[in-house]
From TrEMBL, chains A, B:
Protein name according to UniProt: Protein WUSCHEL
Keywords, sorted A to Z: Developmental protein, Differentiation, DNA-binding, Flowering, Homeobox, Nucleus, Transcription, Transcription regulation
Family (UniProt): Belongs to the WUS homeobox family.
GO biological process, one term: flower development
Span covered, complete protein: 1 to 202 of 265
One Gene Ontology MF term: DNA-binding transcription factor activity
Gene Ontology CC annotation, any one: nucleus
Superkingdom in the source lineage: Eukaryota
Main location: nucleus
Every Homeobox domain range: 79-144
Annotated organism of origin: Salvia splendens
Compositionally biased residues, Basic and acidic residues: 164-173
The entry's DNA-binding region: 81-145
Positions of the UniProt region annotated as Disordered: 141-173
Protein localization: Nucleus
DNA sequence: CTTTTATGAATGAAGG
DNA sequence: CCTTCATTCATAAAAG
């Protein structure tokens, strides 16, 4: 019942992009299990620490994030990869671009359906994919534009359709700070504020 | 490290030999993620508790408000300016999910207030946040459902589209509380709300 | 193999 | 409520 991602039409490249039915390997499973165990350990540590109530607030020294969490961090490369994402085939992309250019930035529910339907003949695709594509396309197109203060009078052009083959003319300099964080935000103590869920240790 | 060899039923990918097999559904993945988030929450709480008890606040550079300055692994974002957009903490999310599941999809003004109040103990939050969250949650939940009815009985007809990448599989109705039997001992800190785990992959 | 970039997807918030 | 937008996250693909 799942999304057994099959190599779409783009598996034409021998030795190249074959994407498999990858969901999670044993290895990843193991990593995951370790992560959980890791948290359990951390909790234990914290409880102990708390119990002893050492006046040494050297929790920092304990380094919650590094001591036992090592496997979690170092194995970042393993990423508990979840789902794979759709990758448009060249053909699909072409069509999408065309529609985007010609069309108005208004996908429209019904239109989406049609497009998806058509594109499905060139590879696996879903309506959501189409929807997302347009959303992203528009948003990014817009962004590029506003980030083009090179020279020339500023003109409020926005919903302007751009040339088919002129998307990424601007290298632009915005770093998405994407530091190989495997869900770091979720896995780390990112939020302070008190709490009361752990009263048991008290 | 090699664990069990995979059922070598996949001889198809030219590139590197399919070494990935499906051992976990995305739904299970979500559940797992949640669990991990739970651990993160617990640890977070413990840290706070410890911190407050020792009246030492140098544990980490955590600060109040909606500034998510986690000293441990935060990606290189120095956004000291804080976020403009609220991001639920694992704990808050947990609670919200729970309410969403159990409760009726009717937030109700008064209810919102209560919820917001409670959640505020786990991080910055406003009533509007809660309201929006429920709105979005519901709307999206709905959409997911209609997008993934039951594409199971369907036999492959054309290319191979047996199960489109139904990327949207929200675990809102996750209640399969299966336990990762393999190493239950590792999971000592079962979380009350989301005590769930992966189904054994044996 | 590791790092960087491009981009599909997720989600909080705003509009109607 | 439902749709749309903006921002962020995660990852496939590309570069080194």
């Amino acid at each position: 019942m799942e999304w057994e991602k099959q190599p779409p039409q783009q598996a034409e490249e021998p030795g190249g992009g074959g994407m498999f039915v990858k969901v999670m390997t044993d290895e990843q499973m193991e990593v995951l299990r370790k992560q959980i165990a890791c948290y359990a350990t951390i909790c234990e540590q914290l409880v102990e620490l708390h119990k002893s109530l050492t006046s040494q607030t050297d929790l920092a020294g304990v380094r919650l994030g590094n001591l036992y969490c090592d496997p979690l961090i170092t194995s970042g490369a393993h990423k508990i990869t979840g789902r794979q994402r759709w990758t448009p085939t060249p053909m699909q992309l072409q069509i999408l671009e065309r529609i985007f250019d010609q069309g108005i930035g208004t996908p429209s529910k019904q239109k989406i359906k049609e497009i998806a339907s058509e594109l499905s003949q060139h590879g696996q695709i879903s309506e959501t994919n189409v929807y997302n594509w347009f959303q992203n396309r528009r948003a990014r197109s817009k962004r590029k534009q506003q980030a083009a203060p090179s020279n020339n009078a500023e003109s409020e052009v926005e919903t302007e359709v751009e040339s088919p083959n002129d998307k990424k003319t601007k290298p632009e300099e915005f770093q998405p700070q994407n530091i190989l964080t495997s869900r770091a935000e979720d896995l780390c103590f990112q939020n302070p504020q008190t709490s009361s869920a752990i009263r048991s240790v008290d």
